[in-house]
């Protein structure tokens, strides 16, 4: 009978440990993913900003030397990431592929113009900056027109700010929820041993002596959960980098190290603090209060 009871108690203990580790792992994993999103929001935003082109249409009378000189000037400008020349023939071929019809054969001539696609650095992708740059380039007498999608730029900047703020708020909120959930899991695991705590206290054990194994056990569970969460984060980051190689998500090792270190500290610190106060609570209770 005693053996069966011991086995039952052992199963309950293992189940309690497993639930604490599992819940802590999931919470830390989700918190870590949100942390990576916060730190990579700017990188993702910069990538999409740099896909917006300022298109400089050139007159048919523009000379090759003028075009090459302008391209070189634009390529060396502080606001330029890259400047690419697009001939009218290339533009016609691209448009034909898009609409699925050879409009040049239908019209009998190519009405398009040679152009330069100027891709800007992220700090200059705003409506006001683009308008100033466009006005400056338009002063060239061989430039027909300078255009950019003003509505797209405005919406992109507004959405980036909105998404960035939303992720930051979600991260702060989830950090608070994570602390509550981990604390609850630790408290429940210690609650199952409240009678053991009181028995040790009744035979003369000091509070520090009683707390020590519970705190150490909780910290070990926190470390196991943290290692599992970090492994999951590393796998998710690797998969995301393979799916979106252009973002180079794994290139910024400093930010990744900050997030991983932060999750490690949070996992250990919350379990340590929670186990300390949970144990202290049961140490301060009277024996008759343990049943409620």
Note down, in words, how this protein is organized.
The chain folds into 2 domains: 2-47 and 156-291, no CATH class; 53-148, Alpha-Beta Plaits (2-Layer Sandwich). The model has no long low-confidence stretch (mean pLDDT 81). The protein has 9 helices and 4 strands, in the order αβαβααβαβαααα. With 292 residues, it is of the alpha+beta class. The protein has helices at 2-49, 64-76, 88-99, 103-107, 127-138, 150-191, 194-202, 207-243, 253-284, and strands spanning 53-58, 80-86, 115-120, 143-147. The two termini are 27 Å apart.
Short note summarizing the structure:
The chain is of the alpha+beta class. The chain folds into two domains: 2-47 and 156-291, no CATH class; 53-148, 2-Layer Sandwich (Alpha-Beta Plaits), CATH 3.30.70. It contains nine helices and four strands, in the order H-E-H-E-H-H-E-H-E-H-H-H-H.
């Amino acid at each position: 009978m005693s053996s069966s009871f011991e086995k039952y108690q052992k199963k309950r203990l293992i189940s309690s440990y497993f639930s604490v580790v599992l819940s802590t792992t999931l919470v830390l994993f989700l918190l870590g993913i949100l942390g990576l999103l916060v730190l990579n929001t700017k990188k993702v935003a910069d990538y999409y900003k740099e896909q917006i082109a300022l298109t400089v249409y050139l007159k048919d009378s523009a000379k090759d030397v003028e075009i090459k000189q302008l391209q070189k000037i634009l390529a060396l400008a502080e606001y330029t990431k890259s400047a690419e020349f697009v001939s009218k023939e290339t533009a016609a071929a691209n448009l034909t592929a898009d609409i699925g019809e050879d409009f040049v054969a239908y019209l009998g001539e190519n009405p398009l113009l040679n152009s330069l696609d100027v891709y800007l650095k992220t700090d200059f992708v705003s409506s006001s900056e683009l308008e100033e740059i466009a006005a400056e380039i338009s002063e060239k007498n061989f430039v027909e027109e300078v255009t950019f999608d003003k509505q797209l730029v405005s919406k992109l900047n507004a959405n980036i700010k909105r998404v960035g703020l939303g992720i930051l708020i979600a991260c702060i909120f989830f950090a608070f929820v994570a602390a509550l959930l981990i604390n609850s899991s630790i408290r429940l695991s210690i609650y199952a041993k409240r009678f053991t705590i009181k028995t040790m206290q009744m035979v003369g054990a000091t509070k520090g002596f009683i707390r020590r194994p519970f705190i150490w056990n909780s910290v070990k569970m926190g470390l196991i959960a943290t290692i599992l969460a970090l492994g999951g984060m590393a796998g998710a980051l690797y998969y995301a980098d393979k799916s979106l190689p252009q973002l180079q998500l794994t290139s910024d090792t400093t930010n990744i190290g900050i997030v991983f270190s932060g999750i490690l500290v949070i996992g250990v610190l919350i379990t340590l603090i929670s186990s300390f106060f949970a144990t202290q609570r049961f140490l301060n209770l009277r024996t008759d209060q343990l049943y409620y």
